[in-house]
Automatic annotation (TrEMBL):
Keywords: Membrane, Transmembrane, Transmembrane helix. One of its GO terms (cellular component) is membrane. The lineage of its organism: Bacteria, Pseudomonadati, Bacteroidota, Chitinophagia, Chitinophagales. This is SemiSWEET transporter. It is found in: Membrane.
Length: 89
């Protein structure tokens, strides 16, 4: 069993990693502009987070920081994909 501080560091890292996407999603939503965003980058991030989610969920024991972080980033990347296809240039 991991000590408490190891879990705390993992959760803190998860929060920081998840926070990296929030400003981009907010800016895209506010400006209704995603022309500068690469569709390939968004697709790579979406695929990467799906793989990490599968890994975190099916690991024994469940890797809570991995699941939380990648679940959140996966949702944000789906929002960016939605914006990419709905906002006109």
């Amino acid at each position: 069993m991991d000590p408490f501080w190891v879990k705390a560091v993992g959760l803190f890292a998860s929060i920081l990693s998840s926070a990296t996407f929030v400003p981009q999603v907010y800016k895209a939503w506010r400006t209704k502009s995603v022309g500068d965003l690469s569709i390939y980058t968004i697709l790579i991030v979406t695929t990467s987070t799906m793989v990490w989610l599968v890994y975190g969920i099916f690991n024994d024991p469940l890797l809570v920081p991995v699941v939380l972080c990648n679940g959140f980033i996966f949702l944000l990347s789906l929002v960016l994909l939605y914006f990419k296809f709905t906002f006109k240039k």
